[in-house]
């Protein structure tokens, strides 16, 4: 069965891990405290602060304690959905102010544009929030790439290393799992996608193999027509 949709990870796949860890995370850590203080009564922020309290088990935490928890989560690289949502709000301000530009590898830009032109549906699945995903591609150093994508998925679809998450995504996309190919640099994610019935391709940009999966070191070397 031929591939109809391409689902891609971001960190280490379309974009450098260093952009997230050396640019985005420090920016959020620096600006998040004041953002939370200034917008603590805004409805969408209120919702996420409540989720932080619930997730941490500190339901009575005041705003300053919630900020401490968020900074602890950032330092630990915790994949917490309310943290990702709040980081996305902070990054949005940075992108709008021109202080941030999303990094996307040139080979990924070229391939995504080509695949879109060839009629493939393109989707993103990343542990970063959907808002953050849209910002990386919408405000990228290659311009606005958002028209290329048909949809975005984050941890609200489930953990990236569990097959059930990819089953939910398959249902949302609306094609057979075997008609979707998932691209990632993490073998456990690729394993989970395969368990859900998807085709897989590993990105090993520094070389090497992702065990059990077709592996390339550049988007230019991946041809979805061969799956």
Main sheet, how many strands, which sense, barrel? Answer: 6 strands, parallel
| Domains (count) | 2
Task: Determine Rg (CA atoms, Å).
Answer: 18 Å
* The CATH topology of the largest domain: Rossmann fold
Number of helices: 8
Give the CATH level 1 class of the largest domain: Alpha Beta
* Biggest sheet, spatial arrangement of strands: 3-2-1-4-5-6
Tell me which CATH architecture of the largest domain applies here. 3-Layer(aba) Sandwich
Number of strands: 6
- Following the backbone from N to C, one meets helices and strands in this order, namely EHHHHHEHEHEHEE
Q: Superfamily at the CATH H level of the largest domain?
A: HAD superfamily/HAD-like
Mean pLDDT: 95
Q: Distance N terminus to C terminus?
A: 8 Å
Keywords:
single chain, alpha/beta, Rossmann fold, Transcription Termination Factor Rho, Rna-binding Domain, Chain A, Domain 1, 6-stranded parallel β-sheet, 8 helices
């Amino acid at each position: 069965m031929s591939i109809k949709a391409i689902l891609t990870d971001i960190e280490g796949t379309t974009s450098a891990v260093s952009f997230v860890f050396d640019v985005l995370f420090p920016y959020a850590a620096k600006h998040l405290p004041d953002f939370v203080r200034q917008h603590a009564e805004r409805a969408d922020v209120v919702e996420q602060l409540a989720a932080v309290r619930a997730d941490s088990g500190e339901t009575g935490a005041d705003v300053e304690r919630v900020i401490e928890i968020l900074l602890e989560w950032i330092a630990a690289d915790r994949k917490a959905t309310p943290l990702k949502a709040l980081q996305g709000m902070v990054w949005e301000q940075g992108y709008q102010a021109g202080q941030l530009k999303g990094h996307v590898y040139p080979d990924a830009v070229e391939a995504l544009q080509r695949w879109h032109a060839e009629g493939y549906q393109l989707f993103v699945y990343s542990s970063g929030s959907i808002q953050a995903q849209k910002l990386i591609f919408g405000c990228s150093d290659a311009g606005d790439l958002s028209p290329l994508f048909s949809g975005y998925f984050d941890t609200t679809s489930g953990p990236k290393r569990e097959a059930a998450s990819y089953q939910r995504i398959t249902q949302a996309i609306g094609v057979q799992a075997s008609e979707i190919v998932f691209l990632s640099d993490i073998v456990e994610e690729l394993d989970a996608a395969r368990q859900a019935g998807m085709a897989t391709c590993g990105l090993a940009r520094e070389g090497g193999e992702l065990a059990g999966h077709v592996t390339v070191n550049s988007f230019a070397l991946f041809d979805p027509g061969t799956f």
